[in-house]
Amino acid sequence: MCGIVGYAGRDRCVEVLMEGLGHLEYRGYDSAGLALQTEGRIERIREVGRLENLARTIARRNGDLSPLRTGVGHTRWATHGRPTEENAHPQLGGNGTVAVVHNGIIENFAELKEELQGRGFRFRSETDTEVMAHLIAERVDGGESLREALAGVLRQLEGTFAVAALSAGEPGKVVAARHQSPLVVGFGEGENFLASAVQALLGETSQFLHVENGEIVEVTDSSVEVFTPEGEHVERESFEVDWEAEAVELGGYRDYMLKEIHEQPAALGATLLGRIDVDGAVDLSEIDLDFTDTDRVVVVACGTAYHAGLLGKHAIEKLARIPVEVEIASEYRYADPIGNESTLVVAISQSGETTDTLAAIQEARRFGAKVLAVTNTRGSLITREADAVLLTKAGPEICVASTKAFACQVAVLDLLALQLARARGVMPEEALREAGRGLRLAPEKVEETIQGLGERVGEAAAVFEAARCSLFLGRGISYPVALEGALKLKEISYLPSEGYPSGEMKHGPIALVDEYCPVVAILGDGVVREKTISNVEETVARGANVIAVAREGDRAAQRISGVILPVPEAPELVSPLVASVPLQLLAHHVATDRGLDVDKPRNLAKSVTVE
Ligand code: M6R
């Protein structure tokens, strides 16, 4: 997805914009550009491809851009028009006196463009953004301030967007606004910042302010002013983000995915800290919600977060005995869902920005549900739509493939299950505490798993060399783990992979099985283990090469598989976390063996903020 950075301050504008864009690279982009104010003009530089290309072009300018103090930068993920220099942002309006960068989609751009063309405007790009640039410039040329012009144009636009603009006639000022796309202001000393995500500015500041839907913000070196669309001042508290700048650096790992897999024990530790004591008692008093009348839980989420939700269902139903439905947010939002004030809707989103999950919350609001957001991003859009928030404390997740955020989402749902069970008094206190003490072991068990895998991941990855597809099988709590394993593999290695409950194999998918379709079996524990083993045996009989996620020395696993990915014995709430680790590392290994960029898989972006 696109990224925005803005700056007003000292003569380090280019440096701040480029660094900030660098921190947003993980979101995916195909071109980049800057617009800078200089002596009554706007200087624009754009390049297709990586930020390095833009950096080289800047370097060729022999430092003539270095003294400049105000500007905006953008990384573009092509939506309207191909990834060319003409379509890269910033887009200029009028005769180059206004520059605009924009995330999101303007849905009515075609009509607006036609109308502008009818009035003689000449377009140089295929973007929807250029429409906005011309509309703003026209108003500025007509005597409006940049802020007034932006406010006026926003009234004409339909869609979702965050936008930042410069006018040659208003030196030292960046003006920005948003509608459904995120935008934050960062505070500095003698300088202030703007960005579409806090990650862009972590090296510069920890003090942020959110721009709300429809608001306009004016940023100079010494002031940040927020206005309503009607031009009235808005007072807003800033908030602090406690993520370290180093958290967005690689720190010796070959890529972010590997780094984030290894960060899981620490992330789980941070997520559980202060929420569960040594005796296993859970304290989620941070969420000011009364669960006494909750008779049904609906989880809404997308992708990996949806899989975390499936695991949450197991925990909540088992411990709290409340029925849970887990819904894909993009389906739920259009499903005319049923519910009432006693329904608790849990919306899970690492980024807190995913459009479908936000829309699902709005649907739930329609019937009066209580909404609890589970997110990794303090102050994100989802936190402002919800009645209460449970933060996962995974730290910034840069890699597109979600790993540590998934682990923390599952842990938070387990905490919620324990809290709900306690509130409803459906389980003896000591049994709940025992489950809680088990959950506290998550960081160490996940660490033990990472350490114990060694060479096995490489051996398992070798099985995929000639594969044309693969199947991930599990039952019970191992089924969501299978789904997540298959998603990770297909997402970063582009190998068709399916996750299935192993009991469903004989109802169709077994037709896929042969020696070129490796089967990854998550054996698990409990009543379904033997059943899973029998199902996997049927695949062995059809020539499958099987990889088993099981305990080291497990006789049945040795019999049915060529490679065991060993996992330690773990308490029930922790076992899906432990079983996910080898699958994450396997996907990473298969993708890197294929020479692929695991952090930025093709066609994907870190968060999906457009429909
Ligand atoms: O930011 P969100 O948690 O709302 O993102 C939801 C999905 O897009 C996300 O989990 C996606 O499936 C993962 N990146 C896959 O690894």
Give a brief description.
Helix content is 35%, strand content 21%. The chain is of the alpha/beta class and 611 residues long. It has an 8-stranded antiparallel β-sheet, with helices on one face.
What is the mean pLDDT? 93
For the record, give the distance between the C-alpha atoms at the N and C termini, rounded to a whole number.
12 Å
The coarse silhouette is globular
Report low-confidence residues grouped into runs of 5 or more.
none
Describe the largest sheet. Answer: 8 strands, antiparallel
Q: What's the number of helices?
A: 19
Number of strands: 25
Helix vs. strand class = alpha/beta
Strand order of the largest sheet: 3-2-4-1-10-9-11-15
What does it look like?
The chain is of the alpha/beta class. 35% of the residues lie in helices and 21% in strands. The protein has 19 helices and 25 strands. The strands form four sheets. An eight-stranded antiparallel sheet has the order 3-2-4-1-10-9-11-15, with helices on one face. Strands 5-6-7-8-12-13-14 form a seven-stranded antiparallel sheet. Strands 17-16-18-19-20 form a five-stranded parallel sheet, with helices on both faces. Strand 9 and strand 10 form a beta hairpin. Helix 7 packs antiparallel against helix 14, helix 8 packs parallel to helix 12 and helix 8 packs antiparallel against helix 16. The longest helix has 21 residues. It is globular. The site of 5-amino-5-deoxy-1-O-phosphono-D-mannitol has 16 residues, from helix 8 and helix 16. 5-amino-5-deoxy-1-O-phosphono-D-mannitol binds next to helix 8 and helix 16.
